[in-house]
């Protein structure tokens, strides 16, 4: 999404709220953009920042061609500061450095913008320090906080921001976009269940690691229903070596969740709802004969619990080991 008109097509309410503020010259001193991955948080943050610095703006639309717009887009503008998690969190030292930057006047104007990605990962100390900016707002300072998990953000921070809720994209519409750009229907259905981001969808679609991840998930389901005694060894020989990084582990659990949802769909006679398995694949039927509908529901809950444990920094090998045991019970 590179313009407010494009944002309006998928995030109508958010676009209307922000563009009305731009037209009235009433940009908020702090925004909290909350929504799932792929709903346009970064694109909207960039549009706000470009609009504040653009040299050739047309109504609410930045030109994207001027020097300021190009530097905002490439994250090289001296008065637009990006903060992202270092490791699993945004640390107090990062906020101290931001505060130090704000003691200086703007290099090219009196206005400054800071954008905090993953603002739900602020440590308690870092979150408390960021409150100083929010409690003493400057008319020339705009904070844009981005999060997929607003429940983890301090209420005192949320109360000082204008909250913009971004809605999940329509999966059918997203599938259509993917197929129009050349993706097969089978893969488009799977990608639409995993992301709302076109770039991510095509990157995964062409990624050998992702193709192997899907195979490992299918093999895990198959072994769990055929030779459950060998699953633990399979996890250590195949799952753990393949899903190394935290994002990869989360994606593995997302695929496993969708695979067991497919089995549940088979139980209720909705083969068309399957995304990991194809409608003609015999494995969901075989797995449904082994796992009762009640058992599948329990496994789905166990996978969701495993995802929460990963977020809580429980060791990933321990998480998948415990999940494997729960699937076998």
From TrEMBL:
Example of a GO MF term: 3'-5' exonuclease activity
Gene3D superfamilies: P-loop containing nucleotide triphosphate hydrolases
SUPFAM superfamilies per the UniProt record, alphabetical: P-loop containing nucleoside triphosphate hydrolases
One Pfam family in the UniProt entry: DNA_pol3_delta2
GO biological process: DNA-templated DNA replication
Highest rank taxon of the organism: Bacteria
InterPro entries, per the entry: DNA_pol_HolB (IPR004622), DNA_Rep/Repair_Clamp_Loader (IPR050238), P-loop_NTPase (IPR027417)
Residues in the signal sequence: none
PANTHER family for this protein: DNA POLYMERASE III SUBUNIT DELTA, REPLICATION FACTOR C / DNA POLYMERASE III GAMMA-TAU SUBUNIT
Record's protein name: DNA polymerase III subunit delta
Taxonomic lineage from the root: Bacteria, Bacillati, Bacillota, Bacilli, Bacillales
């Amino acid at each position: 999404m590179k313009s407010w008109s494009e944002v309006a097509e998928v995030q109508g309410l958010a676009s209307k709220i922000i563009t009305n503020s731009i037209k009235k010259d009433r940009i908020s001193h702090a925004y909290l953009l909350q929504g799932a991955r792929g709903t346009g948080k970064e694109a909207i943050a960039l549009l706000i920042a470009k609009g504040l610095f653009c040299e050739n703006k047309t109504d609410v639309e930045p030109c994207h061609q001027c020097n300021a717009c190009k530097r905002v887009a490439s994250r090289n503008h001296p008065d637009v500061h990006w903060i992202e998690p270092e490791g699993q969190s945004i640390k107090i030292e990062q906020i101290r450095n931001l505060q130090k930057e704000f003691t200086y006047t703007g290099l090219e104007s009196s206005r400054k913008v800071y954008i905090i990605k993953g603002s739900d990962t602020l440590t308690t100390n870092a979150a408390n320090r960021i409150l100083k900016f929010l409690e003493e707002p400057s008319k020339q300072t705009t904070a844009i906080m981005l999060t997929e998990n607003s429940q983890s953000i301090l209420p005192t921070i949320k109360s000082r921001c204008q909250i913009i809720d971004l809605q999940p994209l329509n999966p059918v519409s997203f599938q259509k976009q993917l197929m129009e750009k050349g993706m097969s229907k089978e893969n488009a259905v799977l990608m639409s269940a995993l992301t709302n981001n076109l770039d991510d969808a095509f990157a995964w679609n062409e990624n050998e690691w992702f193709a192997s991840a899907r195979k490992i998930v299918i093999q895990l389901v198959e072994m769990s229903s055929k030779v459950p005694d060998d699953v633990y060894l399979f996890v250590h020989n195949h799952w753990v070596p393949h899903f190394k990084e935290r994002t990869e582990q989360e994606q593995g659990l997302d695929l496993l969740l969708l695979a067991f949802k497919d089995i549940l769909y088979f139980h209720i006679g909705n083969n068309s709802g399957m995304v990991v398995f194809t409608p003609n694949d015999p494995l969901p039927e075989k797995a449904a004969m082994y796992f009762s509908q009640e058992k599948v529901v329990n496994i789905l809950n166990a996978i969701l619990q495993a995802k929460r444990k990963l977020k809580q920094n429980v060791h990933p090998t321990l998480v998948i080991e415990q999940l494997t045991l729960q699937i076998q019970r």
